[in-house]
Amino acid sequence: MELTAHLPAEARERAENRLRTNPIAWLTTVRPDGQPVSVPVWFLFRDDETILIYSEPGKGKLRNIAKNPKISLALDETERGRNVVRLEGTAETPAGHASADGVAGYRTKYADLIETVFGSPERFASKFSEAIVVTPRRLHA
User: Where is the Pyridoxamine 5'-phosphate oxidase N-terminal domain (predicted)?
Assistant: First the structure.
């Protein structure tokens, strides 16, 4: 994986595993007044090394990305704060992107949570209908 190629083998394996399996990441965007804002998100790390996130329409993170696409993404902590994985990159909100219930990897990763919290993939997709695609530029682990 190009994104983790600079890491020693053990750190690379840990980072790649966490990118595929962690349920929560913290997405940081920047408001127009310069204030960084971090919010928890569900995410899918894809084979092309981009990250797919879904948002409710009208949320601040979408407005922030429209004004300034630079973001950071940190995976939720592990026991005792070890094994930190943090990414820097850019985000976009592509029009016409597949809905969450149409992305097999996303549906599979979050099947239990979607069923428990929203009742069905379709209900989740109707509420979280805006796609965010993150292109990581740098990974710290």
Answer: 13-114
